[in-house]
Amino acid sequence: MHHMTSMTNQSFGQSIIALRKKQKLTQENLAKRIGVHRSFISGIEKGERNITLATIVKLAKAFEVEPVELFTSSMIELSTQVAETVVPQPVTFLKIGGTWDMIATPQGFKGSGKLDDTAVEELEKSVDHNEFELMKILEKKWSEVQPIQEGLGAHLFWAKGIQKIISGPFFPLFSGDSSHLRAAYMAPLLAYILKTFQDAPTRPIIAGFGTDTTDIFLGLLDPLLFGSGYAPFLLTGANRSYREAHSDAPQNFSDAAQAARMHLPAGAYYIFNNFIYRGSDMVKIDPHEDPQSLEGMVTFFSPHRTQKNLKNDTLKSMAKAQIESSSWSASQINTALQQIVTLDLGHANPIELEVKKLEDPSFKAVIIAAHALGNASLPIRRAVLKAVRENKLVMVVSRCLIGETSDRYSASLTSVNTRELVDEKVLLINGKKLGVFAARGILLRALLEEKNQAQTQEFVDKYSVALGFT
């Protein structure tokens, strides 16, 4: 077993001190994490102990970092030696379209593969644009997809060092633009992901996706995975194809591979530009592909600031919660998606049309993207009361970027729970600080699990606390 020299021991000790203080740990805390006496940690930090590779791995696990992150820049030779002893994390990789793997054509950037933009057009024509038939074909196609024989390293060769971090199969599910992914695509895709987790609950899934619809997709998936006990689902993409100069794909995909080694609660996460976002707290802020930022975040923004910097932060604040979870078929998911409708009061549509949506019996769940604090006009309020009394799942959220509902104002929809509905056994669901996409994911799960209004509100409360929306 290799060990360090005295001078290297001292440098290593200083590195451990800095990392321990950064994570606000005492020597005793750290000692308990790796099962040793406090004096052992003290000896390491003073440079008085020779450190074996086994101890390095234990310390890295205690700090929830990669072993190489325990070393200073003056210890490159040894850190490389240690890195080579780390076994790559087994993952499943799914290709689900997006710019990161597109090629330049005379018509613009397009996907290339068995189910790319051209194939999608032909497929939709073949079923005469029938959405249900399209869903069934996609479900069958994806169930038959075989991984590429060379493994993920052969396809992600452009992401430097990724083969040393992760290993496993690469499934080329979809190669088109992610904007195709409506309910007929989303339903079989969500069912595929849940089935994959059922088959291998502790194996992380990494997926390459398009940036334009990431917030929609993850808003649906994160509530479905919440509390399941599965490994994390990690999504990433890029503003530039890996084939382009100065592409951001290599860094983003390497970061996603690193995130697969972290101890994350079950859920859907997005990795982009050194940040990791929880699926229900991220929106796209830059419609272009030029570097722009909001509060230091490029392209994507976390409304409730729950994002973490992969280089500087720990991820312990993403608390775990254990709630029973199930798996559903594409048909079940598709049916539930068709039963959810969103009313965005900021669109100022004719009020009669919005009321009709609330009254439509085919919609069993309704999201009201209300004004700043959950406020709404009287026609909407009357229609909401009627729908709630008919036991529809009606959830109110704010349409603002950083939203929050309130019962402070008489016009707030959430105030009906303390006024008009106070003595009735029905409930308007308060979305609290959830955005529209997260609300849709929660209502999807509520319909699949046949939750009533009170049970759905209980789920919203647990979900909001776990994500830090307090």
Describe, in plain words, how this protein is organized in 3D:
- The structure is a single chain.
- The chain is α/β, with parallel strands linked by helices and 470 residues long.
- The protein folds into three domains: 6-83, 434 Repressor (Amino-terminal Domain), CATH 1.10.260.40; 89-309, L-asparaginase, N-terminal domain (Rossmann fold); 339-466, Rossmann fold, CATH 3.40.50.
- The protein contains 17 helices and 19 strands.
- The protein has helices at residues 6-22, 27-34, 38-46, 53-63, 76-83, 117-126, 131-143, 152-155, 162-165, 183-199, 214-225, 249-259, 330-338, 351-359, 378-389, 436-448, 453-466; strands at 89-90, 92-96, 103-105, 108-110, 166-167, 170-174, 205-208, 233-236, 268-272, 275-278, 283-284, 293-294, 297-298, 300-301, 308-309, 340-344, 365-370, 393-398, 429-430.
- The strands form six sheets. It has a seven-stranded mixed β-sheet with strand order 6-2-7-8-9-10-15. A four-stranded parallel β-sheet has the order 16-17-18-19, sandwiched between helices. The chain has a two-stranded parallel ribbon with strand order 1-5.
- Strand 12 and strand 13 (297-298) form a beta hairpin.
- Helix 2 (27-34) crosses helix 3 (38-46).
- The chain is globular.
- The model is unreliable at 73-80 and 315-323 (pLDDT under 50).
